[in-house]
Design brief:
With 370 residues, the protein is of the alpha/beta class. The protein has 11 helices and 10 strands. The longest helix is centred in the middle third of the chain and has 15 residues.
């Protein structure tokens, strides 16, 4: 095993591994894991448990992007096999795929969940977690959740609380856009509020303080999804993901997704000048050009801005990107549009409204109030 510096924070998976006989001995074990389900020494939790002859792992479950984290966003992840074990996909081609079936749960007695959240309401792993807890409650299965830090700290809250009329797979329950909670805290909250009454054990973090950003935990950053490349990406994501609800490129197909925003028909210099003129806290907008290799405007020259966070404690991502969207629409209203294609299994409501959890922001932009 690799030799790494002892981290300040110990994620819940460390305690699970140390006391695996107590928690998992004699049980048929299912694992909901992904590419960031690593221990501080960078080994995968699922490999460590599968390798232990005293632990009976009988099934694996994969969220959006799959357990290896290779699929792009909104791509149907089929059932696969990992080290001879069936991997049940929890992100297929229709909404029924999001919740594990009673037949799949027949293979296990306890489900271990180890997923890295990002601290933004839209990040779908927390809803995969929620569907699994709900399904396990219905099937009488135990759940053990290994908690991990909120990478963008557990204090700062941004954006509106979700209006239940706009519930979707990018927001099932009423929490703010930037919610300041860990996955384990959300699990505990929703299990209580939704009345699931699941047999849920949360293995909490040791050494974590709410003020901490991920780079203060001593833990290694491992991409939880293909475009969540760094802490810098996570820092802008509570606002940057709003770009998905427009026809602007959010920088997918580049090395800096969500930090780059643009389109072939924008004037990047003018956009940067207008946004910098707002003197928004903790951010500087630099005019850029880029060519996405895939996704929106693949192979086409885009002009826009790079969002530089110069003071992450002062920066407010949601407001900054709302202003960016409003300025881009104002600059080129004949070319700008809201995304109308199906989005996360939703075919009628606009993606931008689903992401905001309300239509108020879009209506304010259309009325010229932002």
């Amino acid at each position: 095993m690799p030799q790494v510096k002892q981290p300040v924070v110990q994620p819940g998976c460390v305690r699970l591994l140390e006391h695996r006989q107590e928690y998992l001995g004699g049980a048929r074990v299912g694992l909901l894991v992904h590419s960031a389900s690593v221990l501080p020494d960078l080994t995968y939790l699922h490999d460590r448990l599968i390798d232990d002859p005293a632990i009976n792992v009988t099934a694996l479950f994969g969220p959006e992007h799959g357990i290896a984290g290779v699929e792009q966003d909104q791509v149907d992840v089929g059932h696969t096999v990992y080290r001879g074990l069936r991997v049940y996909s929890l992100y297929g081609d229709d909404p029924t795929s999001l919740k594990p079936s009673p037949k799949a749960l027949e293979k296990i007695d306890v489900l271990v969940i180890d997923l890295q959240g990002i601290g933004a309401r839209y990040y779908t792993y927390v809803y995969t977690m929620a569907y699994c807890i709900e399904a396990c409650a219905e099937a009488g299965k135990k759940v053990i959740l290994c908690d991990r830090p909120n990478p963008i700290n557990g204090l700062d809250v941004e954006g509106p609380v979700l209006d239940p009329a706009f519930a979707s797979f990018v927001g099932r329950f009423p929490v703010p856009v930037r919610h300041a909670r860990t996955v384990g805290e959300l699990a505990t909250q929703w299990n209580r509020e939704q009345g699931w009454r699941a047999d849920l054990t949360v293995l909490s973090l040791e050494g974590w303080e709410r003020r901490m950003w991920f780079d203060e935990t001593g833990l290694p950053w491992v991409m939880p999804s293909p475009n969540m490349t760094s802490l810098e990406t996570a820092t802008v994501y509570p606002g940057g993901c709003l770009i998905e609800g427009t026809n602007l490129s959010e920088g997918r197909g580049t090395t800096r997704p969500f930090e780059m925003v643009g389109a072939p028909w924008l004037d990047g210099a003018a956009l940067a000048a207008e946004l910098n003129g707002l003197r928004l806290p903790g951010v500087y907008f630099r005019p850029i050009q880029f060519v996405p290799t895939f996704h929106k405007f693949a192979g086409k020259l885009c002009k826009g801005v790079f969002v530089h966070v110069v003071d992450r404690d002062a920066f407010r991502s949601f407001d900054a990107y709302l202003r960016l969207v409003a300025a881009a629409r104002r600059q080129s209203p004949q070319n700008f549009s809201w995304r109308t294609e199906p989005y996360e299994f939703e075919r009628t409501r606009l993606a931008f409204d689903l992401l905001c959890g309300t239509d108020r922001m879009r209506l304010d932009i259309e009325a010229g109030n932002l």
